[in-house]
Amino acid sequence: MNTATRQERWSGYALLTVMAIAVVIPFLSVFLASLQPAGTPVVGLTWPERWSWDNYEQAWSVAGFSDLIGHSLTIAVGVVPASLVLAALAGYALGTMKLPGGNAVAAFFIAGLTIPVELIVVPLYFDLRGLGLTNSYLGVILVEIALFMPFSVFWMRTHFQSTPPSLVEAARIDGASSATILLRILLPLARPSLMTLGLLVFMWSWNQFLLVLVLIQDTTKHTAPAGLGFFVGQNSTDIPTLAAGTIIVMLPILILFVIFQRSFIAGLLQGAMKG
Amino acid sequence: MYVLPAFAVYFCFAVLPALHTAYLSLFEWDGVTLGDWVGLGNYQEIFQDSILRRSVLNALVLVVFFSFIPIVVGLAMTGLLARFRRPGMGAYRFLFMLPQVVPLVAVGVTWRWLYGDDGLVNQTFRAVGLDGVTRAWLGDFGAALIAVGLVGTWVLSGLCMMLFLSGVQKVDSSLYEAARLDGAGPVREFVSVTLPHLRGEIAVAMTVTTVAALASFDIVYVTTNGGPGEQTTVPGLLVYRLAFSEGKVGLAAALAVVLGCLILGIVYLINRLSRSES
Fold first, then answer.
1. Which residues of A, range 232-251, sit inside 8 Å of B by Cβ?
2. B193 vs A: CB within 8 A
3. Record's PROSITE patterns (chain B) (predicted)?
4. CB distance from B169 to chain A under 8 Å?
5. Residue A270 predicted with pLDDT over 60
6. What does A175-207 look like in DSSP terms, one character per residue?
7. How many Cβ atoms sit within 10 Å of the Cβ of residue A45?
8. Chain B residues with CB-CB distance to A19 below 8 A
């Protein structure tokens, strides 16, 4: 009995390890390619003879990835705080107060979870062009906030629904206004939920591609993924530089993922459950 | 009052554009001059034009690779692993979620290279003596769609697996003990204990992955851009192409509406089914 379970245990680990290797090899292979001398034709998984970081310099300065990263950050800095504030306010109201029609409003938000970018991107281009908001980060920021709002509101509403109502009632009896209750009592408690939401919104904003491709057609203003997508069309032969660029585009989100992996994973799994 | 700002942004920049798309879909418009009212003509064209129909079919094929296979893989892993609570899952969890967090464009670029003539995929086949199998995968008429689909399998399998594994953690372990005492083997145990408890998670995984398949754009754009021929064209790609390089805005809008309805319908169906069963 004991040996059987041990065997089963080890085969389980072996299986997990095989899957893990399948996940990691593409990353490893692109990382190793990025360390090869620039311009060399790289075959599959090759260990570099000497580690050269020149490609990163090349990608960073010549191919313009420093600018692309900057643009992506600009957008994320606009999207994340605004999303958190708006979602916290709406989630607070929909989660703790009995509003007339509150459920209908919540359902209206939830319906938005199924909107794909494809469904809204065409008129957005023409409407925002009319407003002078194409090729502008403000336009992208506003649309991304709207696009992530159904999930954000849903997330915060669920959070506030799960806080004990007695907390709010006690404060109300003490004469606190609804704004005070939110600011002084509920928001400090909501910090973990807000942080996870912030990470998810940052990730979605960072990874957004189609929207940026359409709304920012000026390639000098592209974001990191859009720039990478454009770059691959232009320079598909210089594999090492392309690989370095790919790593640079992944890096910010990878760093956040390493630091906050618990919140990220919990958020992704729960987020999927809620979505 | 508190809801208003969120509602306003959501309404103006997501709901209105969606409605506007539906409106545009009734016109034949090049984006510059005045449009002509064609009613449902664009929709008729979608069902008649072979390329447009093809794109919808391709998206449905991708559902197999983005949704069906990852769910089967995830369930198989869960079946094999559910009998133990094992330490060290954190590291695996981290690795399996990795493809979820990086931009799909970067994933696409990576795989485009892995699938290349000298890429890792061909290198592997050569190493095991299967030189005859090697080809430029993304340029091959027979293999391109499958190759693109497998990228989706690579991205989404980890998510399904983690969803199911965390779902199984919530199952009362006494149920497994009881099943074992009743003499249930691993298969029996999986079918009568694990599977019923994962119904919710399976519905969720189906929803998320099917939407990812139907609305796919990033990976396809970067790896094949729809080619060779129309082998890997998906609706997302055509919406972009029709509206912004071919000047058929109305047709693009109609296709977007069809896509939106398809997604909404499937999500609704999955939810209905998972609820009525439980």
1. 232, 236, 239, 242-243, 246, 249-250
2. no
3. ABC_TM1
4. no
5. yes
6. T--HHHIIIIIIHHHTHHHHHHHHHHHHHHHHH
7. 17
8. 77, 92, 96, 157-158, 161
Residue B179 has pLDDT above 90, yes or no: no
3-state secondary structure string, A55-68? HHHHHHHHCCHHHH
Distance from CA of A173 to the nearest CA of B (A): 21
Q: Tell me: the pLDDT tens digits for B106-140?
A: 999 999 989 988 888 888 898 888 888 888 889 88
Instruction: Dump strand ranges (E) for B64-189.
Output: none
Q: What is the ipTM of this complex?
A: 0.90
In angstroms, the CA B255 to CA B48 distance is 12
CB nearest B252 (choices: A122, A236, A264) = A122
Q: How far apart are the CA of A260 and the nearest CA of chain B, in angstroms?
A: 11
pLDDT in tens, A43-76: 767 777 777 788 898 888 888 899 999 999 999 9
For the CA atoms of chain B, what is the radius of gyration? 22
Return all residues near B21 (Cβ < 8 A) that are at least 6 apart: A119, A120, A122, A123, B253, B256, B257, B260
- The pLDDT tens digits for B225-278 are 988 988 999 999 999 999 998 889 999 999 999 999 999 999 999 988 887 765
Query: Taking CA atoms, what residue in A is nearest to B224?
Result: A233
Q: Which residue of A12, A117, A122 is in closest CB contact with B84? A: A12
Angle at which helices A2-33 and A239-259 pack, to 10 degrees? 130
CA distances from B7 to A89, B3, B46, B240 (A): 11, 6, 33, 28
Nearest to B10 among A112, A126, A239 (CB): A112
- Contact list in A for residue B92 (CB cut-off 8 A) is 16, 19-20
Tell me the pTM: 0.91
Secondary structure letter of residue B131 according to DSSP: G
Determine which helix (DSSP H) or strand (DSSP E) holds B28, and give its type and residue range: strand B27-28
CB atoms inside a 10 Å sphere around CB B207: 23
